[in-house]
Amino acid sequence: MAAVAEPPELTIDELARHCGLTVRNVRAYRSRGLLPGPRLRGRKGYYGPDHVARLELIAELKSRGFSLESIGQIVERTPGESLQDALDFARAVIAPAGGEEPHVVSGRVFVERWGDQLTPEVIKRSERLGLVRRVGDDEWEIPSPRLERAGAAFRELGIPLEDALEIVAVLKRQSRVIARAYVELFNERVWRPFEEAGEPKDEWHRVREALDRLRPLAGEALLAVFQIEMRAAVEAAFEAELAGIRERQLA
């Protein structure tokens, strides 16, 4: 949700309309402790920019699949004066890596690309691997266009879609371990000291900068190590093939 300059005070109806919600939504968030109560003036309640920021954070996290319980834990521990910093940090955390944005295609496009390789089993496995997500009766979201292009390249090489999915499954298993290692590193060396210091407002920028730098560094390091291992694997396979040829020639 794009940030827009808010009036200093809003009624509940104006707040709901401003944030694209219903009054019922706003009241539900209040009842769950996700949204502070209004500032009372007489018998009427008014909401300010801090309430708008809180609703923006809730909407952003919900759109990324966070449960209301998880969102409640986030907003509960975020002081009001640091809410915009927390909102910016949350957006950085859940932003697509590498600048990739998902896109939606029709089922017809899939059929044209893969033909009879697109079996029900292949579709189900693609969904389990997170490569596609059904968003309509005949529409599919592609979370990573880069992976989609890789799949097209496999097809051009004559590699069956099932084999390409097996490679993706291996990559996901290995990448999950690596991603967790980097997350643990960030938590241990950056987030935990920040948290233990009481999450000072003037330190949010340092935490955000560390996150922004660590994500591309993780990708670059992974690619560099993979290239080293790929070269070693190719050389080992080539040497084994040559040894086999020599043995056959001597037989």
Structure description:
By secondary structure, the chain is mainly α. The chain has 2 domains: about 10-95, Multidrug-efflux Transporter Regulator, Chain: A, Domain 2; about 100-250, no CATH class. It has 10 helices and 5 strands; from the N terminus they run ααββαααβααββααα. The chain has helices at about 10-20, 25-30, 50-65, 70-75, 85-95, 105-115, 120-130, 145-155, 160-195, 205-250, and strands at about 40, 45, 105, 135, 140. The strands form 2 sheets. A 3-stranded antiparallel β-sheet has the order 3-5-4. A two-stranded antiparallel sheet has the order 1-2. It is elongated. The termini are far apart.
Descriptive keywords:
65% helix; 10 helices; two-stranded antiparallel ribbon; 251 residues; mainly alpha; Multidrug-efflux Transporter Regulator, Chain: A, Domain 2
Secondary-structure blueprint:
Blueprint: H1 12-18, H2 23-31, E1 39-41, E2 44-46, H3 49-63, H4 68-76, H5 83-94, E3 103-106, H6 107-114, H7 120-128, E4 133-136, E5 139-142, H8 145-156, H9 161-196, H10 204-250
Helix pairs in contact: 3-5, 5-10, 9-10
Quick gist of this model?
The chain is mainly alpha-helical. It contains ten helices and five strands. The model has no long low-confidence stretch (mean pLDDT 84).
How many strand units?
5
Low-confidence stretches: none
* Overall pLDDT: 84
Order of helices and strands, N to C? HHEEHHHEHHEEHHH
